[in-house]
Amino acid sequence: MSKNVPNISESEWEIMKVLWDNSPRTANEVVSSLQGKADWKPKTIRTLLDRLTKKKVVGVNKEQRIYTFYPLYAEEECQRAETRSFIDRIYGGTMKSMLVQFMEEEALSEEDMEELRQILDKKTSK
Amino acid sequence: MSKNVPNISESEWEIMKVLWDNSPRTANEVVSSLQGKADWKPKTIRTLLDRLTKKKVVGVNKEQRIYTFYPLYAEEECQRAETRSFIDRIYGGTMKSMLVQFMEEEALSEEDMEELRQILDKKTSK
DNA sequence: TAGTCATTATTACACTTGTAATCCATGACT
DNA sequence: AGTCATGGATTACAAGTGTAATAATGACTA
């Protein structure tokens, strides 16, 4: 079983995305990666990294004088955890109602729809 | 266009569900409706109602001595707003990646999948 | 060797959220 | 008319978040 992923706040998610994209990274590298994406002072980013570390969502390598940070959970794992609690909260735990609502209104490309259809087919036939 | 829905916290959502289910209701009626669902003291529920009111997510009728509360936004509107910001945050704004991930793993019944397929068909053919 | 600079560590501070309790006013009851 | 219960208004208080600034420390430089 996957252990429980700690809560990751909105700002913290931005940091995590950078680390999932490429890690380990130093605080400065994280700062650079966020150029243009988030408008935070380096100190703020550092704080977020520290909090993630304290929460055990991020690990730190302190071998070098300049630390490097890396995720302790896979992105998919965290996405699933978030999505599950989100669906419970907002849609009363039933995935379908959300899918319906969003597939109805959301702009999905032809290819996207094709892909979804294939997934459905595969599941149905199995 | 729908005005921006204010943020609704996790606990507040529970209250909203009750009001969407049936409103207007008095604070006491809300308390009763939450029997067995959430384990809050009546005072807590009252606080949540007041906060929702202050946030303008809930309206109050003060004609009677005992107030009644009612939602100022439709449930769907709020669900959409939440879902949109959720997807942006967690899936980088692309609905599809989430759908794929969840359709792959989630237990959807035959009927659910049939319904989804029909929606896809309708959209594709259009 | 002392000063400077880059990093890390510590501290700050307001706002939101979870979770209530206390205070106050008014109608109902005696 | 005084009292009490009930609902509304105000207050509480800690944890989490957003957003940093300041202090301490170790490494390099003049």
Automatic annotation (TrEMBL), chains A, B:
GO terms for molecular function: DNA binding. GO terms for biological process: negative regulation of DNA-templated transcription. Keywords: DNA-binding, Transcription, Transcription regulation. InterPro entries: BlaI_family, WH-like_DNA-bd_sf, WH_DNA-bd_sf. Pfam families: Penicillinase_R. SUPFAM superfamilies: Winged helix' DNA-binding domain (SSF46785). This is Transcriptional regulator. It comes from Terribacillus saccharophilus.
